Amino acid sequence: QPQYFTIMPPTATQIPPTQTPYSSVQFEVFAAKGWQDTGVYVNSGDQVEIIYVKGLWTGKSGLKNYTGPAGGKPSQNYPCNPISHKETGYNALIGKIWYGKPFLVGQHFTGKALISGTLYLRMNDCDQWLADNDGSVHVLIQISRLVKERDNFMQ
Questions:
Q1: Which residues contact 96 (CB under 8 A, 6 or more apart)?
Q2: 127 by DSSP, 3-state: which?
Q3: Spatial distance between the Cα atoms of 24 and 39, rounded to a whole number of angstroms
């Protein structure tokens, strides 16, 4: 499967001096909805950082088992999950760019986009089971672009 991100270490929250932020957006992700358009367009080569701000959600409102975007322990997987629950745990926040492969966001994600398109977010749950979900999480999405060096010239 093709890669869509180069993942940066969790401690790499500082933007390198060769990059400048051009987008910073807060977005609320609802547990009971599928892929949600964040309105953020990402270009190939951009650094994408998604940071949990607040909120709790659950994949089964009757159980009152609310978590943050890191989700619960890895659990049984169902083929309908966008990402295996054995990899992410239940209730985890996940994302994708355009029609790309889903990736784990959790509490904090930083990576370099390898494709361009709109950023989508959601809870990692099967579409047919979204109706019993409850809650939401708020995230801060920051996009930085590599600055190209300009030649010095005199007019």
A1: 4, 35, 82, 102, 103, 119, 120
A2: helix
A3: 11
Residue 51's Cβ-side half-sphere holds a number of Cα atoms within 13 Å equal to 14
**DSSP helix/strand/coil, 54:** strand
Q: Can you tell me the mean pLDDT for 20-33?
A: 90
Instruction: Provide the percentage of residues in the chain whose pLDDT is more than 70.
Output: 79
β partners of residue 142: 24, 49
Query: What are the distances in angstroms from CA 50 to CA 27, 139, 148?
Result: 10, 6, 24
Kindly tell me if the per-residue pLDDT of 99 is higher than 70.
yes
98 DSSP assignment: T
pLDDT score of 111: 95
The tokens describing 103, both together, are 């990736």
pLDDT score recorded for residue 21:
65
| Residue of 45, 43, 49, 40 whose CA lies nearest to 15 | 49
Least confident of 8-17, 81-90, 123-132: 8-17
